[in-house]
Design goal:
4 strands; binds zinc ion
Length: 252
């Protein structure tokens, strides 16, 4: 049984790595998606600015036409008032001409503001364009990195998965079944160490009989609380035990 337990610890390690790799595999497309939508937002912002600039320019052209029309009308009114004999009619024509001059002045003020807006927007658009170009280039290289990482991760997952299947195929079916069941129920942690007199998985006290069973590795012992398969500390992390021993030796 000891060999089976040691093998299950090995599979548990593989499964932990597989979990990390699979999580990374899932998160990469999401990260890419976030960056892609940030890029779209940036580009849409620039387009909106461009739309505002075009609207301002269209309006300023309209104003120019309105100004020309008003000026022509003023010229014709002036000409008319020179030929008019009736003082009242002259006054009416002059009054209309004055109103038109006031209107031209308002329109020219508006046009000035619109042109200033258009200039300011052009500067903003240029800045936004440069920024979008930079982040677009970054996005392209990020996408390539993600694609390479995904391919690499997939290959690694396949390799580890094959290794895992091979290891499990060599073990007796009973413990394997328990392992697979617990792996699912305990979110990827089916095996744990006995830590002192407690289960290393859930921390519950382990009865003395069970502790002896775990210590001798003579049978498959499961925590009565979390049902995980328990193994002695030296099976769980032999390298840790060795390192701890080495550290102790160095310190003394
Ligand atoms: Zn437990």
């Amino acid at each position: 049984m000891k060999e089976t337990l040691a093998a299950l610890v090995g599979v548990q390690r593989l499964d932990e790595r597989l979990t990390v790799l699979r999580r990374r595999l899932e998160s990469l497309p999401a990260e890419l998606g976030e960056r892609e939508s940030a890029q779209s937002v940036l580009e849409a912002g620039n387009e909106a600015l461009d739309g505002r600039r075009k609207t301002a320019l269209v309006r300023s052209h309209e104003i120019e036409t309105e100004v020309r029309t008003a000026e022509a009308r003023i010229a014709s009114l002036e000409q008319k008032s020179r030929s008019l004999r009736d003082a009242g009619a002259v006054q009416v024509a002059q009054h209309e001409a004055q109103e038109l001059r006031d209107k031209i002045s308002r329109l020219q003020d508006e046009e000035l503001r619109l042109l200033e807006d258009a200039d300011r927007l052009a500067a903003e658009i240029e800045l936004g364009r440069v920024r979008a170009e930079e982040s677009g280039a970054e996005l392209v290289s990020f996408r390539q990195t993600v694609e390479a990482d995904v391919a690499e991760l997939r290959a690694k997952v396949e390799e580890l998965d094959a290794d895992r299947r091979q290891r499990l195929a060599k073990l007796p079916s009973g413990p394997v079944e328990v392992y697979e069941q617990m792996l699912e129920k305990r979110l990827g942690r089916a095996v744990c160490a006995l830590k002192g007199s407690s289960c290393g998985g859930c921390g519950m006290m382990v009865p003395p009989n069970d502790r002896v069973g775990v210590g001798t590795s003579s049978k498959l012992v499961r925590c009565r609380s979390c049902l995980r398969i328990m193994v002695p500390a030296e099976l769980w992390a032999p390298q840790d035990a060795a390192a701890a021993a080495g550290e102790d030796g160095g310190a003394s």
